[in-house]
Amino acid sequence: MKKWKILLLSFLIGGLLLIGVTSFAETKPVKSISIFFIVKASNSFYWQIVMNGAQLAAKNLGVQITFQEALAESDVAKQVSILNDAIALHPDAIIISPTVADALVPGIEQAMSQGIKVILIDSAANTQDYVSFLSTNNVQAGKTLAKEFVDLIVAKYGKAEGNIAYMTSMAGVGSLSQRDQGFLEGLKEYGPNLKIVAHQYASNAIDTATTNWENIFTANPNLVGVFADNNVTGDGLARALQLSNMAGKLVAVAFDNDPAEIDALSSGVLQALQIQQPWIMGYWSVFYAVSAVEGVGGLPKNVDTGAFIATKANMNTPEGQAILNPIEFHKNWK
Length: 334
What we know:
6-stranded parallel sheet, elongated, disordered N terminus
């Protein structure tokens, strides 16, 4: 664990030094710096991980941080309202993950025009008026998972042929569209003989995802593989595989790493998880916000926070645990 932590810290500190940030360990910013942190939803374990990373970074740096978010990702109007309320408070910086690409643009641009430094995380907005955008390269992550998916199908069936299905959690979400894009590009490259016979949406609700997956299995009994593009559709997939007595009978992969997905990976219900690094995304975003407030120049416009494919074989390694259970792994960081 210690070696992995040192490597990760070295990567973070080295990257910050390259862009001209002084050592925060030696010179903490003044405590009057205030950050308003807005994620997509409070009902998602993914966002709890993001906020945990941000909270520890704020504590380590000695800055004030306020968290507020909608209950569900589908409540875009609530996120717009929260952003407007945050602007009225005029914090030094706002860190936000836009649920959709267009609706948050006026608020983001207004904040920047008022001197509030805006850091985007996870999902893009249709504007260039922000300081930095920290996210997973979702297209590449989707493509990498497609390669793993095809390899697993070949290992199970001896060839990359047959019917497959996938599910998108919610329409119009940039990060999900990019994952799907990368996955489909990867299928064309690595498994051109695999045929997509079903694609559904889940309204970002686990119960809906579960029902839709069950219906897909009923309508397509000969599937060789399935793909879920976030933790909601992944949870629904794991449930449906077990309810339909399909667990282990086909290759099942997903994005993210909430507890139900981790349990499904451990038990063999899911064979691979493509995992972003939400804790690192939250932690780094506070560093970038403070850097912007302190006037550091040359901050990169786009920052790839990386992804990691977890399997049953690597999930209990230190690297795997840092990604799968980041809150527990990082709880004693100072």
